[in-house]
Amino acid sequence: MEYLGQKTGVIFNIQKFCIDDGPGIRTTVFLKGCPLRCTWCHNLEGLSQKVGLELDTIQCTHCGKCSEVCKEGCHQLIQDLSGIRHEMDLTHCIHCKACLEQCPQAAILVCGSEKTVDEVIEEVLVDRKFYENSGGGMTLSGGEPLLQGAFAQALLERAKEVGLHTCVETSGAVSAQVIEKVAPFVDLFLFDIKETDEAQHIHYTGQSYKQIHENLRTLNALGKAIRMRCPIIPGVNDRESHFDALVALYEELEYVEGIQLMPYHDLGIGKKSRYGLKKVGESFRVPSQEEAQGWQDNIDRKVEASHKKQLINK
Ligand code: SF4
Ligand code: SF4
Predict the structure, then answer these.
(1) CA 20 to 30 Å from 150, out of 156, 159, 183, 256?
(2) What positions does the domain 4Fe-4S ferredoxin-type occupy (predicted)?
């Protein structure tokens, strides 16, 4: 039988001292791979489950050695009125690593690595005293962390064995079986609800929301603590009917603790050239701080006035 700690998965970052990914100070482990293609995504490096490449545009001197060796045409040096720039498009990359080996500046890096459960947990445990003092722990994020379901489950199981508080930030776009398997090892789900209109959901994420909402209801039926985290994109889902539908879900589901809106930012746009993902992602208008605060205040008022609140107060 496979020893749990030796199970491997592909991750692209382990970020320390996170304060927005659940309670207290946390270490967030980012797993590669996502079944959705949200047009506003800012974690583009997490879309593919495979280990990829990253271009350090500061280090690159535009010498052209990578484009000479790449038989798939992934590296283009483009000269125009604004100067010379390096465009990397990994659509046809076969991961031969020839460009990495040829670059004299070490400007092409590997994005992502395969790690065992033991390796990840060992790194997470370095900050145990911070978790203990702040009520923090480990959060799994992505990509969609539950896409690597068996690895995510093994990580969470091991984290609980060593006494860590666990959160999973999920889009819910996985099978019901995966949700049910990981649930016993998760203290808090940070559950993304991106759209409440089916046609809009399909248009902007590439998938139906039906399984996602079903998984949200399954977690609620299992009595798991859930925080809804909802990206709000100007011109896409900043409408009153969407806010009302979010509050209706909150009212319906006993174990949903609250709704946190996540205003759009455009960090993903700069990553397109860095990770060779020319064909993904769109840019939208970035809301002002006042506008974003107005959305959250609006939701908070609706939550405050909701039937669920009145029931709790009785
Ligand atoms: S690793 Fe990909 S981008 Fe680099 S040379 Fe090989 S095919 Fe081209
Ligand atoms: S080989 Fe390295 S320095 Fe030269 S163009 Fe490619 S990435 Fe830039």
Answers:
(1) 256
(2) 51-80, 84-113
CATH number for the domain including 84?
3.30.70.20
**Minimum CA distance residue for ligand 2 atom 3:** 60
Distance 66 CA to ligand 1 centre (A): 8
pLDDT in single tens digits along all 314 residues of the chain: 567 778 999 999 999 999 999 999 999 999 999 999 999 988 888 998 989 899 998 899 999 999 999 999 999 999 988 889 898 988 899 989 999 999 999 999 999 999 999 999 999 999 999 999 999 999 999 999 999 999 999 999 999 999 999 999 999 999 999 999 999 999 999 999 999 999 999 999 999 999 999 999 999 999 999 999 999 999 999 999 999 999 999 999 999 999 999 999 887 777 777 776 766 667 889 999 999 999 999 999 999 998 776 555 44
Task: Give the distance (Å) from ligand 2 centre to CA of residue 91.
Answer: 19
258 and 130 in a common domain = yes
Size (the chain), residues: 314
**154: containing domain:** 4-49+113-270+279-313
Kindly give the residue spans of alpha helices, DSSP state H, lying in 33-184.
Answer: 65-69, 98-102, 117-125, 128-134, 149-161, 176-182
Ligand 2 and 90: CB distance under 6 A: no
Strand partners, 85: 78
pTM of the entire predicted model? 0.90
* 240 vs 299: CA distance, rounded Å: 10
Number of domains in the chain: 2
Residue 94 alpha carbon to ligand 1 centre in Å: 6
